[in-house]
Amino acid sequence: MTAKIAYDDVEVGAELPARTFPVTRATLVQYAGASGDFNPIHWNEKFAVEVGLPDVIAHGMFTMAEAIRVVTDWAGDPGAVLEYGVRFTKPVVVPNDDKGAIIEVSGKVAAKLDDNTVRVDLTAMSAGQKVLGMSRAVVRLA
């Protein structure tokens, strides 16, 4: 596969389609099973509060994975992502109710680089707080 977006058709400042991702306690249990990360801060409210968290929190790597979906959906090929990194700034708090939490992700082309690549900067928010900082991906376009 290859990216479906042509490098020549992209301008700096172009916005990627934003997405929202719901996160429930069930989502966290499913992710824990898939990743093998059964840290109780991700499923045990009593333990999470005892260690100073406001409630159960989403896995950082889960949050990171949800955010990059904005880029892979836009590019049309997950293999087009050459580099991706973030700083974890705030946890995604997931209450034990029928709503859970929402991760809101937007992105924009921040720079056109060499070899048909672009840098995309992402913004990931939950409950009005930025949950990922310096969230950047380098993507090879068609």
What report would you give on this structure?
Strands 1-3-4-5-2 form a five-stranded antiparallel β-sheet. The mean pLDDT is 97. The longest helix is centred in the middle third of the chain and has 16 residues, at 60-75. The protein has three helices and five strands. It is of the alpha+beta class.
Summarize the structure.
This protein has helices at 25-35, 45-50, 60-75, and strands spanning 15-23, 81-88, 101-112, 117-126, 129-140. By secondary structure, it is an alpha+beta fold.
- The outline comes out as elongated
- E-strand count: 5
Strand order of the largest sheet: 1-3-4-5-2
Would you tell me the overall average pLDDT?
A: 97
> Which radius of gyration do the C-alpha atoms yield?
16 Å
Biggest pleated-sheet summary: 5 strands, antiparallel
**Into which percentage range does the β-strand content fall?**
35-45%
Strand-pairing-aware structural class? alpha+beta
**Low-pLDDT regions:** none
Amount of helix: 10-25%
Total of DSSP H or I helical runs spanning 4+ residues: 3
Order of helices and strands: EHHHEEEE
Question: Whole-Å distance between the termini?
Answer: 10 Å
Keywords, please?
5 strands; elongated; 142 residues; alpha+beta; 36% strand
Please render the helix and strand layout as text.
Blueprint: E1 15-23, H1 25-35, H2 45-50, H3 60-75, E2 81-88, E3 101-112, E4 117-126, E5 129-140
Antiparallel strand pairs: 1-3, 2-5, 3-4, 4-5
